[in-house]
Amino acid sequence: MKIDENKKFGRRHGLTKASCYQSWDAMIQRCTNKNSRKYKDYGGRGICVDKNWLNFENFYKDMGDRPINTTLNRKNNNGNYTLSNCEWSSIFYQNNNKRTTIRLTINGEEKSLAEWLKVFKLKRTTVVSRLKAKWSHYQALGIISPPLVKRAKRSIINEL
To answer: What is the pLDDT of residue 149?
Structure first.
């Protein structure tokens, strides 16, 4: 899509319905609008938008059209929205780059839980319950044997 310089302000770029504009507008809202539902997680945490990007045309010149099946991602999710910290990323990658993402290190290699689940073909609920039970990363992913569980001896008195 090309920016149409001849249109009136607010519609001069002709992209208000484009996905890149929707991403830009959502970014602006969550960082600057205290009434936004997501403000507390962005602007409220001090996440800012590069002053040049407060203007959509500047954002568009830097980021271009949003590729299909991508979202605006901050590489460092504690960093600001700047050209050096932003990219269009897949939904899977974006979901693995959240503050709440569980990260596990196996043999010195760190991946998100979702990435390890794909590698070992395991269910999320299984691994999460193992981690909550204080299993090591290796045990939770089935790389080494799980801890032995001592079972209480049944008492004949309890069965009467």
So the answer is: 56
In the chain, where the domains are located: 1-98, 102-146
Using left for φ > 0, alpha for ψ between -120 and 50, and beta otherwise, residue 25 falls in alpha
Token look-up 């039970």 returns 133
Letter for the amino acid at 43? G
pLDDT at 7 over 50: no
User: Can you tell me the distance from the alpha carbon of 60 to that of 46, in angstroms, rounded to the nearest whole number?
Assistant: 23
**Structure token digits, residue 118:** 């794909």
Q: What is the pTM of this model?
A: 0.61
Residue 52: the pLDDT is 97
**What pLDDT does 154 receive?**
56
